[in-house]
Amino acid sequence: MYRVAVIPGDGIGPEVIDGAVRVLKAVTGRVRFEYYEGGVDVFQECGSPIREEDLEEIRRSDAVLFGATTTPFDLPGYRSLILTLRKELGLYANLRIIPDLRTGREIVIVRENSEGLYFGIGAVVNGRAVDVRLITREGAERIARFAVEQAKARGSFITFVHKANVLTGDKFFRRIVREVAGEEGVEVRDAIIDSFTIKLVRNPWEHGVILSENLFGDILSDLATVHAGSIGIVPSGNYGDGIALFEPVHGSAPDIAGKGIANPIGAILSGAMLLDYLGLDGSLIRAAVRGYVVNGELTPDMGGRARTEDVVRGIIGEIEDLLSMDEVWRDEIRLSRLESDISRMAG
Ligand SMILES: NC(=O)c1ccc[n+]([C@@H]2O[C@H](COP(=O)([O-])OP(=O)(O)OC[C@H]3O[C@@H](n4cnc5c(N)ncnc54)[C@H](O)[C@@H]3O)[C@@H](O)[C@H]2O)c1
Ligand SMILES: CC(C)[C@H](C(=O)O)[C@@H](O)C(=O)O
Ligand SMILES: [Mg+2]
C-alpha cells in the first residue's frame, strides 16, 4: 500500500483534487490518501504555510498530490506554499507536459525548479529593490541530467531556452547543459527566450524537450497551455532525489472558485503521473481522459457547458468501461489512444 499526501489548497484546488482522488480510487486500491492543510490560513496560525509536524509526515509519504493555493501579493513574511514545498522537499525538476488530447502530441517542458530568481535572495534598500538570479553548477548539472533522461526516453533532443546573449548566469548554464548532454550524446539546440515565444506559439510540437531556467519555464509552460485548449488540463510533476509532488500547472483560479465549473483534467492527469512515479500504471487514466475528451461534454474553459462533476463522473465511467473489457480488447483501446505513451515506451 502506498501512502499519498494530499494537499487540496484553496480556490479551485479542493474542487479539482476531489476529482483526481476519486479517479485514482477508481483505478487502484493500492494507494492510501492522507489530507493536509496549507496556505495563508495556516501561515496566520503558525507563521509558516504548512505546519512542521505535517511537513514531517509528508516527507515520509511516497508521493504528494497538490491542488493550488492563492499567493497574496503583499502579506509580510509569506512565501507561497508550493515554493515552500519545492524547497523543503528538494524538488529541483519540474516536468510539465502540455497534451494535445486529440492527437496524443505533447509539448514537454523541463523547468529548473529551485534556483534562478526563485532562490529567494531579494531586498529593498534605500529605495532600491534587488532580486538575485542564482545559477549554481550543481543546480545546472542536475536539471541538465533530468532533461537528458527525458530526451533519451523520447528518442529526442533538447531545446535549451535562455538569454545567454545577455545574462552571465545563462552563459554559465548553457555551457553546463552542453557539457552534460554531450557526454550522453544528446543534441542540444539553442533558443533565445524572446524570439522562442514566437516559435512556441506558431510551431509548438517540434522542439523536443524544452529546458529552461526557473522563471522562463514558469512563463513558457503557461504560454504553451494554449495549445492544449486550456491551462485547466495540463499536469506536472516536481521531482527531486526522493519524494515527488504532482500538481496541475494552473493556480487557484479565484475568478471561478466555488462555481463548480473548474476543469479537473489537469489534476486527474497529474494523478496519472503520480501512478507512473509509484511504478503503477497511469496509462489507463490517460486513455480514459482521451476517450472522454473525444466524446464527452467539456467545461466552459474548453467551450463546453459541463460542470466539474460531470467531467469527473464521465472519466470514471470511461475507466469502468475499460476495466469491464477483457484484457486484450482493453489494451487495444488503451494503446490506440496513447500514441505518446507508445512512442515513449518504444524509447
Ligand atoms: N501551484 C500553485 O499553488 C499555483 C500555481 C499558479 C498560480 N497560483 C496562484 O493562483 C492565484 C491565481 O493565479 P492566476 O490567475 O495567475 O492563474 P490561474 O491558473 O489560477 O488562473 C488563470 C486563468 O485560468 C483559469 N483556470 C485556471 N485553472 C483552471 C481550471 N482548472 N479550469 C478552468 N479554468 C481554469 C482561471 O479561471 C483564470 O481565468 C494566484 O494567487 C497565484 O499565485 C498558485
Ligand atoms: C504560484 C507560483 C509561485 C508558481 C511559480 O511561479 O512557480 C506557479 O506560477 C507555478 O507555475 O507553479
Ligand atoms: Mg506558473
Automatic annotation (TrEMBL):
Molecular function per GO: 3-isopropylmalate dehydrogenase activity; isocitrate dehydrogenase (NAD+) activity; magnesium ion binding; NAD binding
Residues reported in the UniProt entry to bind Mn(2+): 194, 218, 222
One Pfam family here: Iso_dh
Keywords of the record: Magnesium, Metal-binding, NAD, Oxidoreductase
Highest taxon listed in the record's lineage: Archaea
Residues given in the record as D-threo-isocitrate binding sites: 80, 86, 96, 111, 118, 163
Cofactor(s) in the UniProt record: Mg(2+)
Any single GO BP term: L-leucine biosynthetic process
NCBIfam families, alphabetized: LEU3_arch
Family membership noted in the UniProt record: Belongs to the isocitrate and isopropylmalate dehydrogenases family.
Protein name: Homoisocitrate dehydrogenase
Organism: Thermococcus kodakarensis (strain ATCC BAA-918 / JCM 12380 / KOD1) (Pyrococcus kodakaraensis (strain KOD1))
Phylogenetic placement of the source organism: Archaea, Methanobacteriati, Methanobacteriota, Thermococci, Thermococcales
